[in-house]
Specification:
326 residues; five-stranded parallel sheet; four-stranded mixed sheet; 10 helices; 17 strands; 30% helix; globular; FAD; oxidoreductase activity, acting on CH-OH group of donors
């Protein structure tokens, strides 16, 4: 191969690498997302107050922030960084690398449960949708009923999510073999392509598109009102602030304390209007942990860790189990 041909091939390879590495940034630009700010950009003395403060920008926190910002002033606090531009998150081919990453900057925080199960929790905007296998299915109807949710409202919410981040998968040969094996073993009927939770065998949805690009819950923030929505990254909330003045029958949450990426402490507060709320959506582990650190939980447990009791609740942090353990 002569020198000119080598230069042409080299430039072509460099161009392809640039296209692949810039996919996440292009997607970020096209989405028209609200600005993502590092927590250190939050003023030490903050006079702005919010209708809602959401702790945890994951699968629940992101759509909540987007919908509430249509009418209200919302602050979304996420302890991790942005998923955009991280190829180990966005590319299907790098899925395994993301889970194997044990660096401090990893979006996946590995742990072993008390049952001995190796697992990982998300530490990134978009939450579990950034590190999971990308399978999507609607909830079982009986689950919605048992949870006490409004079934009509739940059914109206599904298309809102599906139009933005869910896709029909291309069935790979091994997946087709698994499907055929299930049917041969009598797992029937075959329901074809469907998002519904049905008995039998089906092909569900995926948050990976046809190019192998992952669409996470963070994408849903594009549906929010950027004028009402502030998103802070690397904001680790360590306490909920309560109004404990005498005369109040129960403590009322009025704000949160959090640390930024440099270890500096900040506080953010709700408006004084009735109905303003702090929503804790920090996952099955992070949510009870934050409540306990804020003095909400079993009295003996709080006393053991020298935490003042704000509100006694014997159920916080109890009854957890891994659903993969029989």
């Amino acid at each position: 191969m002569d020198l000119i041909s080598r230069r042409v091939v080299f430039k072509a390879l460099m161009f392809l690498c640039f296209i692949r590495s810039s996919q996440g940034r292009d997607h970020f630009t096209k989405l028209n997302l609200p600005p993502f700010l590092k927590a250190s950009r939050f003023p030490t003395f903050q006079h702005e107050a919010y209708d809602y403060i959401i702790v945890g920008g994951g699968t629940a926190g992101c759509p909540l922030a987007a919908t509430l910002s249509q009418k209200y002033k919302v602050l979304l606090l996420e302890r991790g960084g942005s998923p955009y531009g991280n190829r180990n998150i966005t590319l299907l081919e790098n899925f395994h690398i993301c889970l194997a990453d044990v660096s401090p900057e990893s979006p996946a925080q590995g742990f072993i449960s008390t049952d001995g199960v190796i697992n990982a929790r998300a530490k990134v905007l978009g939450g579990g949708t950034c590190i999971n296998a990308g399978f999507y299915s609607r909830a079982k109807q009986s689950f919605v009923q048992q949870a006490g949710w409004d079934a009509d409202l739940v059914n109206q919410s599904y298309p809102w999510v599906e139009e933005r981040i869910v896709h029909w998968p291309k069935v790979a040969p091994w997946q087709a073999a698994l499907r055929d094996g299930l049917l041969e073993a009598g797992v029937s009927p075959y329901n074809g392509y469907t998002y519904d939770h049905l008995y039998g065998t089906k092909v569900g949805g995926t948050i990976f598109d046809e190019t192998g690009y992952r669409h996470t819950a963070a994408d849903l923030l594009a549906a929010g009102n950027p004028n009402n929505l502030r998103v802070l990254l690397y904001a680790s909330v360590n306490k909920i602030v309560f109004n404990t003045k005498q005369g109040h029958r129960k403590p009322r949450a009025i704000g949160v304390q959090f640390k930024d990426e440099n270890g500096r402490h900040h506080q953010a507060f709700l408006r004084e209007e009735r109905g303003s709320e702090i929503i804790v959506s920090a996952g099955a582990i992070g949510s009870p942990q934050l409540l306990l650190l804020s003095g909400i939980g079993p009295r003996n447990e709080l006393k053991k860790h020298n935490i003042s009791v704000t509100l006694r609740n014997e159920h916080v942090g109890k009854g957890m189990s891994d659903n993969r353990v029989s």
